[in-house]
Amino acid sequence: MFNQDNLFLAITFWILISVTLIQIFYYIYFYLEVHLYKPKAPNKLQPVSVIICARNEAENLKRFLPAVLEQKYPEYEVIVVNDCSEDNSYEILGKYLLQYPHLKVSTINKDPKFTHNKKLAQFIGIKASKNELLLFTDADCAPDSDRWLEAMASKFNEKTTFVLGYGGYFREKGLLNSFIRYDSMTIAMQYLGMAIRGIPYMGVGRNLAYRRSLFFANKGYGAHNQLASGDDDLIVNSNATEENTVVEFSNGTHTRSVPAHLIWEFIKQKKRHYTTAPHYKLRDKILLMTEPVSRILFYASVIVLLINLYLWPYVLAVFGLRLIIQATVLILVSKKLNEPGIVPLSLFFDIFSPVIYSVIYISKPGSKSGRNRWK
């Protein structure tokens, strides 16, 4: 007799089929594009301004800034905005000013009566720039090669406003480092894959280029000027289109950043990033929420059905199909983005990351101190 338990399990099984199809769609339609993408021929090189904002980044400037200053590029300037630093950043930058004539330094002095976030430093850097093409990275970032600038700038033609690059993290020991790199890679699969498919929704400030004229035509960060974050993703979300946006993530064009070494540092960083999510376009919110929600339903359905041994051979077959597609795409993308060692842990991260992100996202309103946080 067909009782309520059987009805519940039957509905759960069809939920499993539905969310599996959604998951496969994301992996094949969006994420696989990162592997399949073939860059177009480079365009004529134009002068570029590289902008780096730094607050108390003396050691990182000493370690990473030379890699930016020694790019093989015919005409470019590097603008470092030294924003209220209290370490020896000024002394290190002073030495580099003597070595590199294309380096410019803008300094913001600390004022106890006035606090500000990173957007002010970005604005001052953009204001100080002399070139139309702007390339952004962070003080704790290093390009993968001395051709990074050339590759990013060569994507601009008369129609291009944005070039979205990949910003990963240095590989270190430990589970937290693996998770941070997995997080960075999977986010990149989304924003790069969606941009390739004509739905650009964000970029990362560690490796992002756009036109100076766009910034001023948009009156800075536009409607998001008052927000503490969003100097990277929201300017893309508000202005990027299928026609004016291209991607560049070929070998040697990535940047690598210093990862968080403590879990609370990572959580604080994610909370800051999540403050911009409510300001995304509705289309992008729906697309970004559908994947993790369908993933949670996928694993929940599998567990419920297997515990009850309901059509378990079919459940295992569906689970296996999704796992094979997922692993294949992750292997291909991890090679493309030069992220070794992530795939073996991906199933573990895939199961628990939506729960972790949901807890962080729900808890974010309690962090009021981050309103004027610089970074």
Would you mind describing this structure in some detail?
With 375 residues, the chain is an alpha/beta fold. It folds into two domains: 4-35 and 285-370, no CATH class; 41-282, Spore Coat Polysaccharide Biosynthesis Protein SpsA, Chain A (Alpha-Beta Complex), CATH 3.90.550. It has helices at 4-36, 58-69, 89-99, 118-128, 148-153, 175-196, 212-217, 233-239, 263-274, 282-307, 312-336, 343-363; strands spanning 48-54, 76-83, 103-108, 133-138, 141-143, 162-165, 167-169, 208-211, 245-248, 255-257. It has a seven-stranded mixed beta sheet with strand order 3-2-1-4-8-6-9, with helices on both faces. α2 (58-69) links the parallel β1 and β2 (76-83). α1 (4-36) crosses α6, α1 (4-36) packs across α10 (282-307) and α9 (263-274) packs across α12 (343-363). The N and C termini lie far apart (61 Å).
For this entry, give a set of tags.
375 residues; alpha/beta; Spore Coat Polysaccharide Biosynthesis Protein SpsA, Chain A; 12 helices; 10 strands; 51% helix
